[in-house]
User: Which sequence fits this backbone?
């Protein structure tokens, strides 16, 4: 095995299939849950004058959009390796191996 190469770049079977979620996935999911709880409390106390069903429907639509963004931005280790190779080729650095 070459020194310094990732498991995917070194050809270890199945290593290129590892998924990397975007950095905003966990904070975004936490924010969505907190927002839902706050909205439900506001509706039950009468602060917001909208039906709970409509409010939850809008929240579900926003949550689905967020899930779609996470799905589109999720990368595999193979994608990251390919980007690294392309960056190395474009940089023209003599220490790049590909």
Assistant:
């Amino acid at each position: 095995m070459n020194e310094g190469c990732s498991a995917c770049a070194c050809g270890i079977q199945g290593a290129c299939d590892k998924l990397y979620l975007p950095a905003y996935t966990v904070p975004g999911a936490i924010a969505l849950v907190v927002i839902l709880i706050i909205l439900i409390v506001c509706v039950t106390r009468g602060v917001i004058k909208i039906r709970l069903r409509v409010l939850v429907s809008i929240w579900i639509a926003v949550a689905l959009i967020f899930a779609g963004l996470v799905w589109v931005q999720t990368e595999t280790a193979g994608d990251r390796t390919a980007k690294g190779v392309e960056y190395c080729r474009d940089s023209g650095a003599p220490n790049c191996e590909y």
Summary: The chain is about 60% helix and 5% strand. The first strand starts at residue 19 and ends at 20. The mean pLDDT is 85. Residues 18-73 form one domain.
